[in-house]
Task: inverse folding
């Protein structure tokens, strides 16, 4: 991290790790590393939000700790949990000892009996700062955001029985959201904010080319053109970049050198993930073919 | 307040003044953000104008909408030369009523610069307008406002759906410890209850049936009401939805797939064939005879969204309402006309239906729809 002096170095480093970013994202990442503020990434599905965390951990050569959010996610699954079975056994084992009750209790609620979940893991890493990815935060309940506040601003977690655990190495925190609901202001204020949108034609071509270096220029151009046009349509599920890559890959695997009606029919499933969308596209002649 | 970069003396001052400037235009920027901005400046992000712009954008904005405002403010603040200030001044005044309103509100708020005061600032601009829109009758919403209203509605409906779902879940988890099974299992651990078994109450399957009037007289309302139905589906997994005017159409499937546009298209096509009259009684009869067996069991809650202007026979309507009422847990009638001052349910159709209605509510604006939450929570 110290080796990265400014945002253009980050840009180059990301490039080396197969991630095509723009100046703005590089600046934001640089800020995140420098100010040690969490980064909140929002944008439509499939534009590479999660990918950034993976690349960043690779780049900084530090472990990635991932918390996938879902409806009903609670403290016990995200922060910590006591190992009840072990505690019960612990009580049994202490039955013969002449420790006082207070001492026994202290023992039972000690670190040995604590199960660390991702958030706690992220601040107790001994050697270096890990990257903590809190994925699809908008899926969790609003109440859960409150648990995150302490971690995001003070890099510490309070456990009633033990006390406050401060981060040994402050993690780099990346939160992602598809914006299916608005996150709370309290949470947003603790984060840097960046919105990732669908890429431009040139950028998308660069990304696909980065991932699939052997793709022929003609096919690449046609594929990306086609997808870009699809995004202008009203679809149930707009394809993201990952879908573009998947599609290009399947076309290559089947040996197609350009996009034609037959190719589309055979492979549309890797691009569109909804029956209605597929039917819609099948039933008309995309303008790409007329060129 | 210095509202242009050239009028400040140092970079620090420029940034602080810029923070104040964007704050006064509704962005949620407090002490913390300003301080971070200065730190960022020190971290060497000021070598380029673009770098500064990007860095401050990440710090000052919290949504795509705010980013648009920010971009405008940024060029207004940093790019203005004293020479073309006059021109730009004109520009600011034409920036639209929303921004102007914010300014005046904040002046009234005074100089007490606690971040908390400004925390609400972001919503101040929207707040008045939003509040107003929520109270506006759907028929009086202009084209421009309609999009805004739809946005607000979308958000609020989602919140309702989330809250309702949450409530259900809470009651699901407070299962009592199933002692019998726990002790049985504990034998293998030598009598220690290592594994606790719970007996959760089975969640009651909630059913909701919605009947929406899409006749000519309801035209303006049906669009928003349809949105509302779609939002409800997120809570009531077993939602049955129908639209009717002279005939009854089941739209549950389309709504399940979130194809609100398809439904609207369908309605538009059909609308031409429909002579405009509403035969509520007949449609309810079709509903009862064709779908009643399948949908009216397990005492569901039935919501009817209609203005009650019956062109068929009112007696028939009354009769059908009674039949439905007998098999439903609760019948809710939402009438957009009820929002009008001085409205009395004396239209023949409405009067005939009323005896079989448990809740008779208005549905002419967003607020009235939101009030439904309490009824639905106990549904």
Result:
């Amino acid at each position: 991290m110290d080796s990265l002096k400014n945002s253009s170095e980050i840009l180059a480093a990301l490039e080396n790790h197969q991630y095509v970013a723009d100046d703005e994202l590089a600046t934001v990442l640089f800020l995140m590393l420098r100010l040690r503020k969490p980064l909140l990434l929002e944008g439509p599905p499939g534009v590479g939000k999660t990918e950034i965390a993976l690349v960043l951990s690779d780049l900084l050569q530090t472990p990635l700790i991932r918390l996938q959010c879902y409806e009903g996610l609670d403290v016990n699954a995200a922060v910590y949990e006591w190992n009840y079975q072990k505690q019960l056994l612990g009580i049994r084992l202490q039955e013969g000892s002449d420790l006082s009750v207070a001492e026994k209790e202290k023992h039972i609620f000690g670190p040995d009996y604590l199960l660390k979940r991702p958030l706690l893991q992220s601040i107790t890493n001994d050697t270096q700062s890990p990257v903590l990815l809190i994925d699809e935060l908008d899926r969790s309940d609003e109440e859960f955001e409150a648990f995150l506040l302490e971690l995001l601003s003070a890099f510490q977690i309070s456990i009633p029985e033990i006390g406050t655990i401060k981060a040994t190495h402050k993690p780099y925190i990346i939160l992602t959201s598809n914006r299916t609901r608005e996150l709370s202001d309290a949470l947003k204020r603790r984060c840097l904010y960046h919105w990732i949108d669908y890429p431009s034609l040139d950028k998308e071509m660069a990304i696909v080319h980065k991932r699939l270096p052997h793709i022929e220029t003609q096919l690449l151009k046609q594929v990306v053109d086609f997808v870009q046009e699809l995004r202008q349509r009203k679809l149930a599920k707009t394809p993201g970049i990952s879908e573009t890559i998947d599609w290009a890959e399947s076309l290559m695997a089947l040996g197609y050198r350009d996009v034609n009606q037959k190719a589309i029919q055979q492979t549309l499933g890797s691009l569109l993930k909804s029956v209605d969308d597929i039917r819609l596209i099948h039933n008309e002649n995309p303008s790409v073919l007329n060129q | 307040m210095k509202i242009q970069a050239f009028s400040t003396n140092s970079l620090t001052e420029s940034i602080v003044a810029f923070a104040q400037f964007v704050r006064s235009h509704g962005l949620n920027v407090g002490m913390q953000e300003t301080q971070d901005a200065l730190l960022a400046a020190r971290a060497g992000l000021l070598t380029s104008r673009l770098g500064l712009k990007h860095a401050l954008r990440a710090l000052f904005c919290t949504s795509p909408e705010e980013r648009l405002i920010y971009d405008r403010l940024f060029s207004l603040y940093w790019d203005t030369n004293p020479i073309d200030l006059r021109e730009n001044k004109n520009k600011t005044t034409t920036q639209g009523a929303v921004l102007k309103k914010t300014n005046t509100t904040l002046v009234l708020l005074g100089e007490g610069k606690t971040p908390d005061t400004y925390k609400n600032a972001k919503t101040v601009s929207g707040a008045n307008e939003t509040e107003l829109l929520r109270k506006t009758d759907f028929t009086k919403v202009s084209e421009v406002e309609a999009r805004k209203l739809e946005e607000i509605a979308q958000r609020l409906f989602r919140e309702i759906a989330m809250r309702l779902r949450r409530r259900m879940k809470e009651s699901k988890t407070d299962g009592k410890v199933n002692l019998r099974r726990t002790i049985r299992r504990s034998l293998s651990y030598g009598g220690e209850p290592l594994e606790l078994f719970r007996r959760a109450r089975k969640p009651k399957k909630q059913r909701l049936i919605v009947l929406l009037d899409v006749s000519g007289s309801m035209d303006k309302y049906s669009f928003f009401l349809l949105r509302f139905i779609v939002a409800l589906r997120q809570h009531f997994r077993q939602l049955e939805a129908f639209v009717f005017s002279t005939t009854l159409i089941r739209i549950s499937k389309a709504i399940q797939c979130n194809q609100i546009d398809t439904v609207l298209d369908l309605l538009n096509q059909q609308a031409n064939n429909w002579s405009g009259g509403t035969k509520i009684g007949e449609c309810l009869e079709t509903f009862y005879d064709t779908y009643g067996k399948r949908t009216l069991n397990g005492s569901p809650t039935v919501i009817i969204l209609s203005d009650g202007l019956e062109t068929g026979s009112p007696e028939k309507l009354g009769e059908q309402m009674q039949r439905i009422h007998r098999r439903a847990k609760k019948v809710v009638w939402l009438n957009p006309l009820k929002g009008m001052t001085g409205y009395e349910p004396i239209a023949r159709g409405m009067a005939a239906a009323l005896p079989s209605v448990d809740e008779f509510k208005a549905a002419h604006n967003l607020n009235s729809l939101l009030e439904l939450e309490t009824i639905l929570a106990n549904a």
